[in-house]
Design brief:
about 35% helix; eight-stranded mixed beta sheet; Chloramphenicol Acetyltransferase; OB fold (Dihydrolipoamide Acetyltransferase, E2P); about 400 residues
């Protein structure tokens, strides 16, 4: 029986996918549920499992755009698994890549003879080595084509002239996911009145809480007490104070949300992904950290789904994990705001009239000025700063152990 495998729908509004990579070859025997291909949609990269066991016949090439519901391969379910197929294939591959030894030796001998005839003098060789010039690229004027010192001096290129080194280039087709990300970023720049405001946060209080409770927190909840829970909680509080930041434009209307679906930008094997923490306002510190960990692992392992990245009312991006000091994050449309976190560096600051050293993070809020005014944007970022500098009172209600569920 010949089974036609069709492209399943990865999610709502997705009409086609791109064959990113075939994980099997035409004519291979595949097992049921074996991953046979990776396919890119405009939102995620997914694995395509074999629906039945049998011999596979591919009907699409890598890089092809295939509509949802279209046949991508055939599986002959009546075929039996060939014995020793793996070893036979391995021998075939070894034979294909085995070099022609005689031809290789002949080329090496020819090259050695050529170099002996036109080899550089010791003085010339020293000059060429210092300047990084390949001797085989020079025609010697000495006896039997020998490269003289004068030849080497003349061959040394002037500033900015190619030296004969490697100047190759490689073209790689962008995945559908990366192309979609590019389109969305350009769209955000062109279709929003994006503006960025900055502030700095003294992380001393957060450092102190983490130092005192992180071990107990991890033992109790089997998850680390990181910075993301503090920032997520601070953002939720600020969104409640400035609801326009938790809004978006739809045509001639502004939609404001009474819930906080926080998008968290994470780095995955296929690039930047932005999974969503649903109803983050209802989560405790433990709940936020557990959800961030779960989504990050799924993104890293390529298991994140389209539904897990759909929606979101506000985004938090942490460039600090890569060492970024300051940036202007780009809005994740159709959202109207994104908070950029950065690295934490000990810097001198003034406290109570005296200079002290404190762990400082620069933060940035990019926002859509069409619906968020300067008063709201600056007020929002100041509210985030206040909460992070006084987390015990503003984020934990004065009871740290209760907030951390210890």
């Amino acid at each position: 029986m010949i089974l036609e495998m069709k492209v399943p729908s990865p999610g709502e509004s997705i009409t086609e996918v791109e064959i990113a990579e075939w994980l099997v070859s035409d004519g291979d025997y595949v097992e049921k549920d074996q991953a046979i291909a990776e396919v890119d949609s405009d939102k995620a990269t997914l694995e395509l499992p074999a629906e039945e066991s049998g011999i596979i016949t591919l009907k699409a090439e890598e890089g092809d755009a295939v509509a949802v519901g279209e046949v991508v391969c055939l599986i002959d379910t009546s075929a039996e698994k060939p014995e020793g197929s793996e070893s036979a294939k391995q021998v075939k591959q070894e034979n294909e890549v085995k070099p022609d030894i005689k031809k290789e030796k002949a080329e090496e001998s020819k090259k050695e003879a050529s170099y002996a005839t036109g080899s550089p003098s010791p003085a010339a060789k020293k000059i060429l080595d210092e300047k990084g010039v390949d001797a085989t690229s020079i025609d010697g004027t000495g006896r039997d084509g020998r490269i003289t010192k004068e030849d080497a001096i003349k061959a040394v290129p002037s500033m900015g002239t190619p030296t004969g080194g490697n100047r190759g280039e490689k073209r790689t087709k962008l995945s559908m996911l990366r192309r979609k990300v590019a389109e969305r970023l350009v769209s955000a720049k062109n279709e929003t009145a994006m503006l960025t405001t900055f502030n700095e946060v003294d992380m001393t209080a957060v450092f102190a809480l983490r130092k005192e409770y992180k071990e107990t927190f991890k033992e109790r909840h089997e998850v680390s007490l990181g910075f993301m829970s503090f920032f997520t909680k601070a953002v939720i509080r600020a969104l409640g104070l400035f609801p326009s930041v938790n809004s978006m434009i739809d045509g001639k209307e502004m939609i404001s949300f009474d819930f906080c679906d926080i998008s968290i930008a994470v780095s995955g094997p296929k690039g930047l992904m932005v999974p969503v923490i649903r109803n983050a306002e209802n989560l405790s510190f433990r709940g936020v950290e557990a959800e961030v960990k779960r989504l990050a692992i799924r993104a890293r392992d390529g298991q994140i789904t389209v539904d897990e990245m759909t929606g979101g009312t506000f985004t938090i991006s942490n460039g600090g994990v890569f060492g970024s000091m300051l940036s202007t994050p780009i809005i994740n449309p159709p959202q109207s705001g994104i908070l950029g976190m950065h690295n934490i560096v000990e810097r001198p600051i003034v406290k109570n009239g005296a200079v002290e050293i404190a762990p400082i993070m620069y933060v940035a809020l990019s926002y859509d000025h069409r619906i968020i005014d300067g008063k709201e944007s600056v007020g929002f970022l100041v509210a985030v700063k206040e909460a992070l500098e006084n987390p015990t009172e503003l984020l934990m209600g004065g009871d740290v152990k209760r907030a951390l569920e210890l």
